[in-house]
């Protein structure tokens, strides 16, 4: 992977010489083209064997997403609401079973940059075709596809 991280987020995701274009050669952009990547996987595995966890659902209701995964894998029901608790300081779900455990804030991803609404719109416009293709492949809409996010 070749991530080109520059001084600003905008410089990192836009082409150097033509700032009106998304830099599709930068893996920061390519990694989000999920339908493109999954098209290669479905040459070897049928879609019926692939489940995509929706991180937005998992973040707000981990039990719901885990139950969906259990159903997909045809596993006996295991996960319950009491297996998780909402941490009052981080507002993130933590494991309550078999022991209470939370990710340290430092383990929970990188700090997100401030991004202008204009760049967010351009990125949404760029990814829309890939997201539509992904929705059609899996017959579902994922939370990050919501314009209000």
TrEMBL record:
This is Heparan sulfate glucosamine 3-O-sulfotransferase 2-like. It comes from Saccoglossus kowalevskii. The lineage of its organism: Eukaryota, Metazoa, Hemichordata, Enteropneusta, Harrimaniidae.
């Amino acid at each position: 992977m070749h991530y080109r991280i520059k001084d600003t987020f905008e410089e990192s995701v836009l082409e150097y010489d033509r700032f009106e274009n998304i830099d599709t050669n930068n893996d920061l952009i390519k990694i989000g083209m999920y339908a493109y990547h999954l098209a290669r996987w479905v040459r070897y595995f049928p879609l019926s064997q692939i489940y995509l966890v929706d991180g937005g659902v998992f973040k707000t209701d981990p039990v719901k997403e885990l139950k969906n995964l259990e159903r997909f894998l045809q596993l006996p029901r295991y996960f319950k609401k009491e297996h998780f608790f909402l941490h009052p300081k981080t507002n993130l779900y933590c494991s309550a079973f078999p022991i209470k455990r939370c990710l340290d804030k430092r383990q929970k991803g990188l700090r997100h940059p401030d991004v202008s609404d204009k760049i967010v719109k351009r990125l949404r416009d760029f990814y829309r075709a890939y997201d539509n293709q992904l929705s059609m492949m899996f017959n579902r809409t994922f939370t990050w596809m919501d314009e209000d996010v």
